[in-house]
Amino acid sequence: MTSPIGSPRRWRVIAVALLALGSAQIDAAPAPLPPAPAIARDGQVLSDLLQGEFQWQSGASRQAALDYLQAAQDSSDPAVAQRAAGIALTAHEDALAERALTRWRQLDPASPDLANAVAVLALRKGDRRGASRLLQAMVAAGGNGWKRALIVLATAPDSPASAQVAEDLRASGHWPSQFDAWLAFGDVVRRLGDVELARRVVGDIVRRFPQQPRAWLLESARLDESGEHAAAKQAIAHALALAGSDDKIRDQAAAAYGLIGESKLAAATLAQGPQNDDNYRSRAAWLAKADDAPALAALYAEVKAHTIDADPARGLLLGQLAEYLKRPDEALAWYRGVDDGAARAEARNRIAIVLESRGDLDGALKQLRDTQRDATDNAQAQADSYRIEAELLVKHGRKADGLATYDRGLAFFDGDPGLLYGRALLLVDLDRIADAEADLRAVIAADPDNAEALNALGYTLADRTDRYAEAQVLIEKALRLQPDSPAFLDSLGWVQHRLGRDVESLRNLRRAWALLKDPEIAAHLGELLWLRGDKDGARAVWKEGMALDKDNRALQRMMQTYRP
Question: CA 388, CA 394: separation in Å to the nearest integer?
């Protein structure tokens, strides 16, 4: 059930997301995949386009690539060829991509996007010389050429040639001298997983820009990933010293502390300077992650001392703090005091959760159903009340009732992504994979950039079906949206294992485990280590995973399968 402060298992993910090093970061969305082209006039081309787009949206990526390639061959519109190449590249249909690129080159040989797509294919094929030549030409062209080069690298992070080409760019001497260009380069190189190259690039950044606080924050991540934890802490402290009273750097430094597992220091950093509800909430989240009850109690007292007439948002925050501190009576008093505003329905949902935690499931269900019957100006919190009710019922073993609750909620809030997503996960647990897929596809149809739904569908297909190529496309899109998500890296590693690409799989599973100690990741990494002959390494990872959650379904399956 949802914690009042936030799920501790997800805080490493949030820390990564918070470490926003500025506008220099490169969006890893692949340049070769543009929006669907405008409707063509030619009847056959139109038919191929519509069929290709239908197949693409349905997840049949190879057939979509074939249909778009046919449209590109029959059309004189370079946008059709560009879309065909992008879909084929995204679907890892490299032979089809090569044919689409040939057609695109015939129609629009000067297109800058064509060079990007050709470079991506060169990386996929392991053509270091060809890819290096193309990317160095982009950088030498000036302007935003360096950004285009980094987008190509970020699009193909699992190619063995990507790190080699990045080293070629570094050694060429033509990389722009501005800080943002180097900072983005360091961020992309870190994603490539080459520890030595990352060390060299971040070292270059620190030597070139020693007075830039963000350079030291990047250095802290590199040091911690190399096992130099104390030095990583010192790097963050140095960044803070350089930043002075810059609140933005303070927030980034707090996130950097969280990234290296120093949640208490993250909270202490945020405690510096003027405070507001956002600061209090962030401090509470980090202290909850650290499971530091005394510090949370002190924060609770601090917030109360600065509260005379609590507005609804402040009352909600105080209730959350009291709830985490296992003071249910105080939590209920605060929540019940939130009697107006958008926070009212959210507070009533928390009341239900507190009641259930005290053993009063019937009272919790009555509270939630009262909220569902009461018109409110917070429709999202009202929709959430159905999700919370379903989760409580499932927690008590009443899966059928939970499913009925999701159905009831969706009858009122048709298409609500939270309800569809929650029902999909329950349907997977009930082995109703086709129904779960339908719900997740409905979420994605309404929001094609819903990374959680993309990953959930991709992982489900990888874990519970043999549709591995389709799963990979979905997971890779989720990762382009959230490049440092440990959960998504775990999914990618798992589908790569299913596809027989164990070298890439091991790299991604190790990185996911380094970012987040999670039992599901432990199950997957341990299995791959075991199958590759490293049984001692597998046992060590599984032991850590069991300490986190001995009842985890994936870990239990590993114990039964391999009996380590």
Answer: 10
